[in-house]
Design brief:
By secondary structure, this protein is an alpha/beta fold. It is built from six helices and five strands. A five-stranded parallel beta sheet has the order 2-1-3-4-5, sandwiched between helices. Helix 3 crosses helix 5.
């Protein structure tokens, strides 16, 4: 997709729902990035007092491919095999994706500095933005990973195995 002028350097597509404490780390991240990066950062989604509204899935790729960095952070990255369709869309768009560390990242094909950049703290995330130039090789590697391993055709056998395991445990 062609890059669009006017997109902030760093984008985060996510929602934050009031009253749910699981979203507090996400709210803290957004608040800090808004304060430290100002207009260079923008959040898109529901529940933000200083953000843009949610964008349609088919429009996400324009944001991801036009931004310098895209942030991937989940409220459920503690699962043994976390999965995120938004992460896969960011990779498929060729975004330089700043991924919050989670168990078995390697199992999804993620490689730090190869097809994504990893972080655990906000300081670490911010360091990527100040010390790392956008690497076109990372963008190309992200697209290649998504095209090979994160399409519906590639993911469905894994999903079916999970469904069968759940069905089997109910019998």
């Amino acid at each position: 997709r062609p890059q669009i002028a006017g997109i902030p350097e760093v984008v985060f597509l996510a929602s934050a729902y009031e009253g749910n404490p699981a979203y507090q780390p996400r709210r803290d991240l957004v608040s800090r990035l808004q304060n430290e990066l100002g207009p260079r950062f923008q959040v898109y989604g529901s529940g933000w007092s200083r953000g843009h509204s949610m964008v349609k899935q088919d429009e996400e790729s324009y944001l991801y491919s036009s931004a310098r960095f895209a942030i991937a952070m989940s409220i459920r990255n503690d699962l043994p095999r976390y999965s995120s369709d938004r992460l896969f869309r960011a990779l498929a768009s060729g975004a330089v994706t700043l991924v919050e560390r989670f168990p078995d990242m390697e199992g999804l094909g993620l490689r730090d500095g190869v097809n994504s950049l990893w972080w655990s703290t906000v300081d670490e995330l911010l360091a990527h933005g100040t010390t790392m130039r956008v690497d076109e090789e990372i963008r190309a590697n992200a697209r290649a990973l998504a095209a090979e391993y994160h399409t519906w055709a590639a993911r469905m056998p894994e999903l079916m195995a999970i469904v069968e395991a759940v069905r089997g445990s109910r019998r």
